[in-house]
Each structure stands twice: as structure tokens, then as C-alpha cells.
Design goal:
alpha/beta; 2,3-Dihydroxybiphenyl 1,2-Dioxygenase, domain 1; globular; 34% strand; Glyas_Bleomycin-R_OHBP_Dase; VOC_core
Length: 121
């Protein structure tokens, strides 16, 4: 068995597709009308369809999971994030931990994202 995809719920699939392309270079592989597969295995699911499947409300900003990306040029990424999406809600702006530099923020729908420099032992 292997993990194939990670699915996140979004209100506006086109805006989210643009967000993930602008910041992470992800491109659409398949559009199933309300369910869109992007490169790297990220799937965007329309919130209305998701609610029909699970019969429950979506809770933005629930902080129960995060998408993690690594970026060698983290300062440039942080600048791009501020420039392209100035209304971003942050958990923390760029900080340095003993293991990496990281920035944590929410996407357009309250899904938590962390971007960090690659771990070096």
C-alpha cells in the first residue's frame, strides 16, 4: 500500500489552484469538476461537494494538520508570499529554530502550511 494524495477542502478551487501555483509551482494534472489533482499529489476539493460527502461542516483554521514544503531559498519565498498575498494570516513569520528556518501560515481557506529549509544533520 502507498499514500497517493493529500486532499484539502477549499471554497474557490480556481483561486486555490492559482495560490498553489504562484507560491509552490504546483500545476493541475486533472480537473474532475470540483475535485482537482495538482502536481506533488495535492488534491483540491470543493467545500460544497465535501460537505455532501461527510455530512459535516468544514472548520477552517482547525490546526489539526499541515502541509509541509521545503525551500532552500526561504527568505526569497517569504518575500514572495508577502508580495503576492499580503493579507496572509500567519502563525509565525520567518523564524529560526535550531533545525531550520520556517514560516507558518494559512492558505486562502485556513489550511495550515509550513515552509522550512531542508533539514541538515
Amino acid at each position: 500500500m502507498k499514500l497517493k494524495n493529500i486532499l484539502i477542502v477549499v471554497k474557490d478551487i480556481e483561486k486555490s489552484k492559482q495560490f498553489y501555483h504562484d507560491l509552490f509551482g504546483l500545476d493541475m494534472i486533472l480537473d474532475n469538476g470540483g475535485n482537482m489533482i495538482l502536481t506533488e499529489g495535492l488534491v483540491l476539493q470543493d467545500e460544497k461537494i465535501w460537505r455532501e460527502f461527510v455530512k459535516k461542516d468544514v472548520i477552517p483554521g482547525s490546526n489539526s494538520c499541515e502541509l509541509y514544503f521545503e525551500e532552500e531559498h526561504i527568505e526569497e519565498f517569504a518575500d514572495k508570499l508577502d508580495r503576492l498575498y499580503p493579507d496572509t494570516k500567519y502563525v509565525n513569520r520567518l523564524i529560526t529554530h535550531s533545525w531550520a528556518k520556517v514560516v507558518r501560515f494559512y492558505d486562502l481557506d485556513g489550511n495550515l502550511i509550513e515552509v522550512g529549509t531542508p533539514f541538515r544533520s
